[in-house]
Write a structure and sequence with these properties.
This protein is of the alpha+beta class. 16% of the residues lie in helices and 16% in strands. The chain is built from 2 helices and 6 strands. Strand 1 and strand 2 form a beta hairpin.
Length: 173
């Protein structure tokens, strides 16, 4: 009987981090964030830490959260590593399906205007924030923003987005 109780205690110790002390279990740790992949996948968010167990003979430990799921490949806008800025879904049926976003392309702050599916907006913003943090200030002048039609505009409010042939696209009228 003692051997069975000992084995049970070991199992409880590993599984619940408490054995016979009457205290609550310890909290779980936060999950790590998933990395964004190419092709429009978004970075997973960090998991929350687990909560402690209540006082009992063997309190239950908090569950460890898993990290977000993400694709392979890191965001690397400086072009010094193996990563790249991800592609985002551009499919649309009407202009209302599209949103206009701006992507910084160099340390001067020059940007490209990109039309993407509106459901991809938050993922784009997160990736763009990561990208912008990778550029050091280099003191050069920002050049006009380039739309996907190849035209440029000094005033970004002049750039529009539309659904053309089932894909969101930016343009300068």
């Amino acid at each position: 009987m003692k051997t069975t109780a000992f084995l049970l205690c070991v199992t409880v110790t590993v599984g619940l981090s408490a054995c016979g002390d009457g205290g609550g279990g310890s909290g779980g740790s936060a999950g790590a964030a998933g990395a964004a992949g190419t092709g429009g996948s978004t970075a997973g968010s960090s998991g929350n830490a687990g909560t402690g167990g209540g006082a009992a003979t063997a309190g239950a430990a908090g569950a460890t959260s898993s990290g977000g799921s993400g694709g392979s490949g890191a965001i690397d806008c400086s072009k010094t590593g193996a990563g790249a800025f991800p592609d985002f879904d551009k499919t649309c049926a009407a202009a209302a399906d599209c949103v206009l976003k701006f992507h910084q392309i160099n340390c001067c702050g020059t940007r490209d205007a990109i039309g993407i599916n509106k459901d991809q907006g938050a993922a784009f913003d997160a990736a763009e924030m990561t990208c912008e943090m990778q550029y050091p200030g280099c003191g050069c002048a920002q050049q006009p923003t380039t739309a996907e039609d190849g035209k440029t505009a000094q005033d970004e409010s002049m750039i529009m987005v539309d659904c053309k042939s089932g894909k969101c696209s930016s343009y300068v009228p």
